[in-house]
Amino acid sequence: MAYFQQLALVGLAAVVAGCSQPTTLEEIRSEGVLHVITRNAPSVYYEGRDGPSGFEYELAKRFADDLGVELRVRVVDGNAEILSVLDRNYAHIGLAGLAANEAQKTRFHTVPTRLTTESVVIYNRDESRPKSPEDLASTIVHVLPDSNHIRHLENLSQEIGSLQWQAHPDLDTAGILKRVESGEFGVAIIDSNELALNQVFFPDVKSSFSLNEPENLAWLLPKVQDDSLVKAAGEFFERVEQDGSLAQIKERFYGHLDRLNYVGARTFVHHVRNRLPTYETLFQDYASTEQMDWRLLAAIGYQESHWRPNAKSPTGVRGLMMLTRNTASQIGIDDRLDPEKSIQGGARYFKIVHAKIPERIPEPDRTWFALASYNVGFGHLEDARILTEDAGKNPDRWMDVKEFLPLLAQKEWYSKTRYGYARGHEPVAYVQNIRRYYDVLAWMKSPSVATDQLAQRETYGENYSDGGEGTTSDRTSDDSQALPKALGMTPPTL
């Protein structure tokens, strides 16, 4: 806390020295640092494999860059400490994942982030579903302290009679979800956006209903500050909303969360356990040769064949990486059914496809385009990009192009293109699925997860859907409830 106390004394020192007190924004630019206080949460801030990440962190980093200053982040245990730091003016901005309600507006300056959330009731899928607020009266509702939910429970308690809830200062959202899945907690309330980000790890948790209409999440700023930083932040959000970069950040964190359903997730875990070990070294070796992430290559292989070396589609595409005869010949693969050669060919072909995507397109969009091209072909992808540009949208952004790819299946659209008809919905689902498989593999295979943990998972039954060897479209799904507890692990606490 001494660090923040030093920050608070900067402005005071100027006054004592007889100088006129600069505005908050002037102080920040003079020091060259924007001080942010936050907590660990996938929707706010976390340390990813490539460094700091999180939806609100990405916005704060862009804002600091916009101001031409360094972003300096301090992470604390929870919202209570964030609010305390802001009350004492020891930080410029608090990223707490809280809504811009009247109570917060009275206590702090608020700047809406344009991301909304709801307080959603969750329960274990094996238990009775609470269907209405009245059903909460007969149980204890579990929540996080200093969250958006307690206010809604207080209002609801006044409407329908006394409700009982218990706040857990020692838990985070993942901890609440874990206890609902295990049955320790019967009913809980969490933010809908955090449920979307975490549910892949807790498939036995279901959502029932929301206690409120969507509310804007907000940055919180100390009330004692003048409004110079508030105005600058508001103008920043206006700009990123208008230029589309805000929507692109939303797509990056939330745009692929509607893939991988309950059955598909259980199947995936079973295959990670029983099939992936056979090919994992091959994925690692050939991905390293082509300088790509092996988990991405493995995710492509799973989407293509469920890691089945003898897979075959009705159109004659064959092997673990489902290479066409022409593609295999082009990249020098003479036996598509040999799993090593198939993986080698898949890595080589993806590298070729990726190189065709214009270098001006930044990651991760360049990879999403490469995946779409791997699936539908570069020509059809270019057709969709041209349609996107003709419509006044950005052909270099995946979130824009994926709206136009499905149009390639409609005559009124594909008749205007060079390469004609394509089943354009498939590459969209293909990319979304691979992104989700990669998310899970990136966690399961992270250095922080001991390799013997997978071997120590509880044995999971055989009552699951294999998914077989069908076409790509046969293997897609559209539900966000995902990764089973058969792992015997919980996701990293974020």
Task: Describe what you observe in this structure.
The chain is an alpha/beta fold and 494 residues long. The chain has 3 domains: 2-116 and 216-254, D-Maltodextrin-Binding Protein, domain 2, CATH 3.40.190.10; 119-212, Periplasmic binding protein-like II (D-Maltodextrin-Binding Protein, domain 2); 262-487, Lysozyme (Orthogonal Bundle). It contains 21 helices and 12 strands. It has helices at residues 2-16, 24-31, 55-67, 79-87, 102-107, 149-160, 173-182, 192-198, 228-242, 245-254, 262-274, 276-289, 294-305, 325-330, 339-356, 365-376, 378-390, 398-404, 411-414, 425-444, 451-455, and strands at 33-39, 46-48, 51-53, 70-76, 93-99, 108-117, 119-124, 140-143, 164-167, 187-191, 205-210, 215-222. Strand 2 and strand 3 (51-53) form a beta hairpin. Helix 16 crosses helix 20 (425-444) and helix 17 (378-390) crosses helix 18. The chain is globular and about 70 Å long.
List keywords for this structure.
single chain; globular; D-Maltodextrin-Binding Protein, domain 2; alpha/beta; 494 residues; disordered C terminus; 5-stranded mixed beta sheet
Please outline the helices and strands.
Elements: H1 2-16, H2 24-31, E1 33-39, E2 46-48, E3 51-53, H3 55-67, E4 70-76, H4 79-87, E5 93-99, H5 102-107, E6 108-117, E7 119-124, E8 140-143, H6 149-160, E9 164-167, H7 173-182, E10 187-191, H8 192-198, E11 205-210, E12 215-222, H9 228-242, H10 245-254, H11 262-274, H12 276-289, H13 294-305, H14 325-330, H15 339-356, H16 365-376, H17 378-390, H18 398-404, H19 411-414, H20 425-444, H21 451-455
Parallel strand pairs: 1-4, 1-5, 8-9, 8-10
Antiparallel strand pairs: 2-3, 5-12, 6-12, 7-10, 7-11
